[in-house]
C-alpha cells in the first residue's frame, strides 16, 4: 500500500521525527512541542493523496491544488500562436505535488533561475524562479510552469524530455508555497473562473479544441 507522502518530504520528516522523540525523552518539553508542530506541518505539506482522474477525452485537469488567481491571454517563448494562461496559487496548506494536465509527450523542459516574489502576484509568472514543461498531445501543445514563491526555494521535477505521460500523473513538486501556470491553446474551452479552488489531477479546467 502506497504511503500518501511525497518521497521528497522524508528528508524533512525523518529529522524532525527524531528530534521530537529525542526532546521528549530528554524532558525538553518546549523544544519537543516546537519540533512536533514542525513535524505536523511538514507531513501535511508533503501529503500526496491519490486522485480520481477524469477519463473523458479532451479534458484538461488542473496541474496543481490551489486557487485560480488569473485567466489571461498570454504567450511564451516555447509556444507559437495564441494561448490562455490559467494561474493557480498554492498556499502552504495545499498539496504541492504537480500533475500532468493532458496526456502526451514531454517535448521540452526549461529551468530558469529568478526572484522569489509573492507567488500570488502577476510578476511571479515573469520574474520568479521557474521550471517550464512543454507537453505535446499529438495535435496541440500545453505548457505548465512550476513557479517558486515568497517562501518556496526549491522546484523539483521527476520527468525528462521525450517521456510519455498520462493525464493526472505526478511530474513534480514545489516546496513551501508557490504558483503553477498552465497555457491552453486558442479554442480551448475554459470551465473555471478567478477565485475557484481546484485540485490537481481531478478538477477539470476545461477542454482542448474540438478537433484535438
Structure characteristics:
212 residues, Glucose Permease (Domain IIA), 2 domains, three-stranded antiparallel beta sheet, 14 strands
Poorly predicted regions: none
Question: Going across the major beta sheet, what is the strand order?
Answer: 9-5-6-7-11-3-2-13
CATH superfamily of the largest domain: Glucose Permease (Domain IIA)
- Averaged pLDDT: 87
CA-to-CA gap between the ends? 36 Å
Sheet with most strands: 8 strands, antiparallel
Level-1 CATH class name of the largest domain: Mainly Beta
Beta-strand percent range: 35-45%
Q: What count of structural domains?
A: 2
Number of strands: 14
Shape: elongated
The structural class is alpha+beta
How large is the count of helical segments? 3
Rg, nearest Å: 18 Å
Return the CATH architecture of the largest domain.
Answer: Distorted Sandwich
SSE ordering: HHEEEEEHEEEEEEEEE
CATH fold name of the largest domain? Glucose Permease (Domain IIA)
Report the helical percentage: 10-25%
